[in-house]
Amino acid sequence: MNPESVAQKPNKKNVLEFFALGLPAFSAYALIILIILLLAHFIWHGMPGMSWAFLTESPRNNNTEGGIFPAIYGTVILVFIMSLLGVPIGTATAVYLSEYAKQSSVFARAVRFGVNTLAGVPSIVFGLFGVGFFMQFIGKGIDTTLGSDMWSKPSLLWSAATLSVLTLPVVIVSVEEALRTVPQELRAASLALGATKWQTIWKVVLPNSLTGILTGSILAIGRGAGEVAPVIFVGAVYSLPELPDSLTDQFMHMGYHIYVLATQSPNAAEALPLQYSSTLVLLLLAFSLNITAGLIRMRIRKNNS
To answer: Residue 239: left (phi > 0), alpha (psi -120 to 50), or beta?
Structure first.
């Protein structure tokens, strides 16, 4: 055997190992550095405009003065209602697809095709869907029954319902994947002990997949919280000093507020610091949501261990 060929084999193997291990590690470090740079950029430019008045007061003078509390409040309430509407429906759908439906059935394949199709639909299309279905169809039906005209107008409820439909694909796919991680042996053991199908799902499957379900739900909520295009059609307003006190009221939204500052301010240079400060607040809300979810997951894993 040629000694040179023997010496070349380890070198080739080392090169392959370098690319196999080095590229994923480089991508991971690059992602972390990118997140740090992004956050540092907005902290550097946004912190000078941060104050207690900025966080607690209402906007004034075309959003160029005052604070952003109505936008923070509207975004938090919107995300809360959206979660109440979307996460249970998405979780129930995923449980049905994973535990009850036959994988080869026409209905299950049709549902999965619909979920995958919804995942690729632009968010602005969901806004038009919210106008046509929730406001014009359901809202006008309620108004006809009650003899009023408040349910067919843009509102907090229809915005949350529209975003819940938008986030359904993320919830369904992530929860279904989490349910698949539960070993079939646990299901078989529960059924062998005399438990019913639903008891097995409720007592065995869901507790063992709870961290995955929570992760998927948080991802869906995070996507819905950052969407602006749908809420422009069905509830968000340019500026609103008052807080919404009912589901039929309109509201301010952090993402739309930043868009307004960037595109419709009479003085773009004057509004730039407000854009950075508002964006920093939105980022902190998103990070707070993810940190809270991480702490809950750690607590659940600790209790299950």
So the answer is: beta
Q: Largest Cα–Cα distance in the chain? A: 94
**Predicted TM-score of the model (pTM):** 0.86
CATH number, domain at 241?
Answer: 1.10.3720.10
Residues 45 and 55 in one domain: no
Q: Give the burial class of 147: count Cβ atoms within 10 A of its Cβ; 0-12 exposed, 13-18 middle, 19 or more buried.
A: exposed
Q: What is the pLDDT of residues 87-105, one digit of tens each?
A: 999 999 999 998 888 877 8
Alpha-carbon distance 282 to 212, whole Å? 25
Q: Where do the H-state alpha helices sit in the chain?
A: 3-46, 52-56, 69-95, 106-119, 123-129, 140-146, 156-180, 184-192, 197-200, 206-208, 210-226, 229-234, 254-263, 268-304
**What tokens were used for 18?**
């370098």
Contact between 222 and 118 under an 8 Å Cβ cutoff? The reply is no
Burial, 16: exposed, middle or buried (Cβ in 10 Å; 0-12, 13-18, 19+)?
A: exposed
Domain span holding position 65: 51-304
Please answer whether residues 95 and 178 qualify as being in contact, where contact means their C-beta atoms are separated by less than 8 angstroms.
no
Do 217 and 105 lie in one domain? The reply is yes
Rg over alpha carbons for the chain, rounded to the nearest Å, is: 25
- Of residues 296, 303, 300, 286, the one with CA closest to residue 72: 286
Q: Which residue has the higher pLDDT, 292 or 117?
A: 117
